[in-house]
């Protein structure tokens, strides 16, 4: 049997965490890694740590397998894991052609929407890079990179319309601290992961303003109903919204100390401008971009999404967080 060859595209905390899982997993495989930052590549080769993200994690890849040359990295692999924030995906793939991806499995670890295109990653790769839907996989589930670094038990969901493909890929990630589920819901899984980032921003805003745990619980129970309404409108199949890839991911992001989106929202609630909140964090909160993309996407579906609407108004129409959230409280139950 052929040894699986896996390429990671991205150098942030989630890419670093998934490289750790792939390295700790016992199935024989080759791992390749593209990062844009050449100084980080030099550091990784010399010291076996990513200097900017999860810097305590040891990463022992062969030196020749780490490169800033994306075509070289892609050409060597069968699975290509996309793992840059969605806002930078187009730029990252600017030198990549559909021919270079032909026959490969494309795995999205991104929880975001491609700006301007207003597409989830699977749709974007299918339309713009001609990747057949059966070659698209999604990695999702409630899992923070920081807890992977600490080897805390985490569950991931691997989605593909072909469950055998999902199962084969999931076998490359399982470790003592990573368990995997499989799913055939590529659209629902991606959209739920995008939406939960917006609700984490809402949760952070409410916390920053001074709402307590009692209200947070109401906010999140309304948020899961928004997710359900939206994914049912976009892709009406039978799914249990209480599964970890949907409800679990929403809960971890809304409550965890590690949540980037909640942290960002908290700063907005405390009065930071979007720019100053972004500068203060050296990580990306996808929910900021997703709020705008989902606002456009939902013009087509017209799903009732008062929480998304409130976050959009605060972030993009400069509405007061206090007033917008007070109005929102009248619409929740
Ligand atoms: N962190 C987590 O726990 C999880 C994250 N995800 C998802 O993973 C994806 C990646 O996020 P994450 O790893 O957290 O990101 P981080 O915030 O940890 O890292 C940011 C990444 O974005 C890159 N970047 C920043 N600015 C630019 C730019 N102008 N052009 C190109 N690249 C840029 C950085 O590269 P550089 O270092 O060179 O600046 C770095 O690789 C997101 O979609 C996120 O939702 C999913 C599950 C868990
Ligand atoms: O998706 C994630 C965890 O499942 C990470 O996003 P947050 O850091 O915003 O929680």
Question: Can you put this structure into words, describing what you see?
Answer:
With 333 residues, this protein is α/β, with parallel strands linked by helices. It has two domains: 5-184, 3-Layer(aba) Sandwich (Rossmann fold); 192-330, N-(1-d-carboxylethyl)-l-norvaline Dehydrogenase, domain 2 (Orthogonal Bundle), CATH 1.10.1040. The chain is 51% helix and 12% strand. It is built from 16 helices and ten strands. Strands 3-2-1-4-5-8-9-10 form an eight-stranded mixed beta sheet, with helices on both faces. Strand 6 (113-114) and strand 7 form a beta hairpin. Helix 9 (186-209) crosses helix 15 (306-316) and helix 14 (286-301) crosses helix 15. The longest helix is centred in the middle third of the chain and has 24 residues, at 186-209. The radius of gyration is 19 Å and the shape is globular. 1,3-dihydroxyacetonephosphate (13P) binds at residues 111, 142-144, 197, 200, 249, 252-253, 256, 258-261.
Task: Sum this structure up briefly.
It holds the Pfam family NAD_Gly3P_dh_C. This protein has 333 residues and is of the alpha/beta class. It is 51% helix and 12% strand.
Oligomeric assembly:
single chain
> Which distinct ligands sit in these coordinates?
NADPH dihydro-nicotinamide-adenine-dinucleotide phosphate, 1,3-dihydroxyacetonephosphate
Into which percentage range does the β-strand content fall? 5-15%
Placed side by side, the strands forming the largest sheet appear as 3-2-1-4-5-8-9-10
| Number of separate helices | 16
Please tell me what the overall shape is.
globular
Q: According to CATH, what is the topology of the largest domain? A: Rossmann fold
Which blocks of ≥5 consecutive residues have pLDDT under 50?
none
Structural class: alpha/beta
CATH architecture classification of the largest domain = 3-Layer(aba) Sandwich
The level of helicity is 40-55%
> What is the CATH C-level name of the largest domain?
Alpha Beta
How many DSSP-defined strands? 10
The overall pLDDT average reads 97
Secondary-structure element order, N to C? EHEHEHEHHEEEHEHEHEHHHHHHHH
Number of domains: 2
The CATH superfamily title of the largest domain: NAD(P)-binding Rossmann-like Domain
């Amino acid at each position: 049997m052929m040894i699986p060859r896996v390429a990671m595209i991205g150098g942030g905390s989630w890419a670093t965490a998934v490289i750790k899982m792939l390295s700790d997993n016992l199935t024989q495989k080759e791992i390749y890694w593209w990062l844009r930052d050449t100084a980080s590549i030099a550091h990784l080769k010399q010291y076996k740590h990513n200097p900017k993200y999860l810097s305590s994690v040891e990463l022992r890849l062969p030196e020749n397998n780490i490169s800033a040359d994306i075509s070289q990295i892609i050409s060597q692999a069968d699975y290509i894991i996309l793992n840059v924030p969605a806002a930078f995906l187009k730029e990252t793939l600017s030198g990549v052609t559909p021919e270079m991806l032909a026959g490969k499995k494309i795995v999205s670890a991104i929880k975001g929407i491609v700006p301007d295109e207003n597409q989830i990653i699977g749709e974007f790769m299918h339309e713009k890079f001609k990747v057949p839907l059966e070659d698209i996989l999604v990695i999702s589930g409630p899992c923070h990179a920081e807890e992977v670094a600490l080897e805390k038990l985490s569950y991931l969901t691997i989605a593909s319309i072909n469950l055998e493909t999902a199962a084969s890929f999931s076998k490359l990630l399982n470790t003592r601290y990573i368990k995997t589920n499989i799913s055939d819901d590529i659209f629902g899984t991606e959209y739920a992961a995008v939406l939960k980032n917006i609700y984490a921003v809402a949760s952070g805003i409410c916390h920053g303003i001074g709402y307590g745990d009692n209200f947070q619980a109401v906010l999140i129970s309304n948020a899961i109903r928004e997710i359900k309404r939206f994914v049912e409108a976009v892709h009406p199949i039978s799914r249990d919204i209480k599964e970890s890839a949907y409800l679990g991911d929403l809960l971890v992001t809304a409550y965890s100390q590690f949540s980037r989106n909640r942290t960002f929202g908290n700063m907005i609630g405390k009065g930071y401008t979007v720019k100053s909140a972004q500068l203060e964090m050296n990580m990306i909160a996808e929910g900021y971009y997703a709020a705008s993309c989902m606002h456009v996407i939902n013009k087509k579906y017209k799903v009732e999404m008062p929480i998304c609407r409130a976050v959009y108004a605060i972030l993009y129409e400069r509405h007061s967080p206090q007033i917008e959230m007070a109005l929102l409280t009248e619409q929740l139950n």
